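Q: Got a minute? One more chain.
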Amino acid sequence: MCTRRASTVATLLAAAATAIVAAQTPGWLAAQRDAAPADAVPSRVRDPWLWQATVGQHPVGPASVLFFTAHTRYLESTGVVVGRAGGYRLLPISVGETHGMLSPDGRWYLRAGTGSLVDLRTGDERPAHRPGLRPLAWSQHGRQVLFTRDNDDTVITYGPDNQQLNDPSKPDDVLTVDPWNGAERVLPVGTFASHSAAAWSPDGSLLAVAGRVDPAAEASERERLVVVDPVGGGVRWQVELGEQRQLAGRGAWSPDGRRIAVLAYDGCATNRCADTAEMLRRSWRIEYLDAATGRPVGDATPVPGSAVELVAWRNGEPVVERQSQEPDHAKRHTVLAAVPAQGREQVLLTAPEGVSDVEVPGDLLVRAAYGGPEPRPSPFAAPPWWYATLAVPLPLFVLALVRRRRGSRHS
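A: Always. Here it is, folded:
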């Protein structure tokens, strides 16, 4: 009798120990399913498992790509980090928090508006700068980040005769911030009501900044582009982009420093589109400006689908993040594609349906390191609570099995 009890207790203890070990080592289990390490952008990424661990629970290391999707257990936009060893981890963001940016080496994720950095190697989060700033672009070496600061008043005040006492709309600032010590410096880029995009020149000596100049331009979506010297100060040149042209994004400056790319479209302006379907019928192209003068140069490059941003260049061809044109956002596909001036595009990265944004570290973009393996998320890379949930029934099942066997022996 004592022997049977001891055997039962030993079985239960062994089951519990197995569950505890499993809860603490999902990273090891996941390694059995992760792809081989590759210092390149994956050719394809997939939706994570609903129980996928977060970066904070089991860090995955520097990212090869980060994408945002609502197809997670959080049921809202969530970051999904794909590590360079192939593992998938969730990067939750708060409700109303906009998408942040990866550092050029893929190690850090800069949260937008919160003032913090997430270390993807350890999962730790640390303060980087004061909150309330929106990031526009990292410098190439990761030593500075370009931000925009909203200076508008949050409240309109009125006098006793109901007259408005203040103008809540004030020019915004562009500033560089050292993300490691929080040091700030406001840049003399001219007066803007808001800033939409910015790009560093390849050598880091100049900045291209675009945005809407005044509240009237905000309503009509007319933008201006300026090129400034962030060290010596002063605007080199500026051009009015109008309603249907915008700075192409963080990768807008060509690698040789001679051209700046602008995204342009034919179709309805955003505030005058009848519906989403009409907006999606726009036809997009990339136009080019002389980086020294701002004058148009060269022929335009057509972009299939809906262009989001020019992220980099490959062999002189722009690499664009673009989306397919389904009206249902949950069915749209996001890809990174090289778009030549003539001929068909080459898709470099394919994301699953419903992905709203894709981030790739700058070091991989500069090296044009595409064509990496297609890692699949491991079902074993789960948080401890998931293993604990599965482990709870195990001792009970073992106990029931033992009792059943004992009962059958007595019958």
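A: The helical segments are 2-24, 26-31, 215-220, 276-280, 362-366, 384-391, 393-410.
Q: Perfect, thanks.
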